[in-house]
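Subject: PadR family transcriptional regulator structure
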Amino acid sequence: MSIGHALLGLLESGPRHGYDLKRAFDSAFGQGRSLHYGQVYATMSRLLRNGLVEVEGIEPGEGPERKRYAITDAGTTDVARWLEQPEKPEPYLQSTLYTKVVLALLTGRPAAGLLDTQRAEHLRLTRELTRRKQDGDLADQLICDHALFHLEADLRWLELTAARLDELADVVGGQGKGQRG
């Protein structure tokens, strides 16, 4: 996710302080992982330097002065351009899971156990996300659906790899040490 573009998009509804931007971001996108204040202010500093936002006002506060940021025309154009561009599909051709299986086979470790452990972790997270989806609002449901579809694909891959483990061991030179046991 482009945090800068998300913050710019939030500014389109009107000027906001960094604190307000963080709260709006967390509310809209932060399910499971809120944005740190330092990240908000570092991003706003970069957007300011690039002419995508401007400081509309500065107010004294109990601590540091509070800047109110507004999006510029260039910022609005940048968000529009970003929204129109399709995201590059991630083919996951060199995943960490695949690397671990191959390394287990190459080093004579039990790849089947690795697959079983990973499957259990995927199933645990699937149950957790399914509960969250049932209790969540529409945004939570959509986020959980996205994650669940990826987990389902990973689980299918884990099953397929387990079924082909002996063949893979021969291909990568594991001499059968990493198969089914």
